[in-house]
Specification:
This is SDR family oxidoreductase. By secondary structure, the protein is of the alpha/beta class. The chain has 9 helices and 7 strands; from the N terminus they run βαβαβαβαβααβαααβ.
Length: about 240
Amino acid sequence: MNKLIITGAANGIGRATLEKAIEDGYFVIAADKDVDGLKLLQNRYGVDVLETHVVDFADNAVIKGFIPSLYERHATIYGLVNNAGIYHGKSVYAYSEEEIDEILNVNLKALVYLSKDFAEREMANEAPRSIVNIASVAGEVGSCDALYGATKAAVIGLTKANAWNFAPFVRVNAVSPALIHDTAIYDRIPTYRRDEYARQEVLKDPIRPSGVAEVILLLVGDALRHMTGRVIPVDNGAYPR
């Protein structure tokens, strides 16, 4: 049973990815700061297929210590899904200094450390491994939340660079969702931006976390083993590129 780390696993895209991964036969190592959300999932799935960790990736010590701590109990791990993220949906002028540090840590710095710490250990095995980063269309076309857009643009750059850095054994790809329904972020997006996303979609089936999870698991798995350094849009065709 291959082991898969998923951050931000208690809700939204992360939870949908956890559910799909377990369905596909993975053992999931789930990380989130949502204590109740993780407890609910642990009770539902049990210890045979799920291990949960309550962590806050805004904390520098957590960022630097999380992957090393996992390898104290796991000899090898197949994949990493960097999903944890913050979106405030507000102007850069409204950010406090603490909020700036928090979003940079969670949305970007955590990915830097988790990715390199995972790849460093798994490249030694000289066997196929996979990292999937969750970017956003906001990182490609901009966002009303400048800090969110900037961090997601950086995630795209990090994905492409690490595809080179971690080759030939660890593939690195990203998923770039647009307007995802049934998430906490959805309600924070200003109405005019939600309307603009919806107007540009050429496919009208609303995108939900489960739809994004299906793409993530494809990228994690062997079916797309020849793909690395790619950014895959999940946007109902709203932003052709």
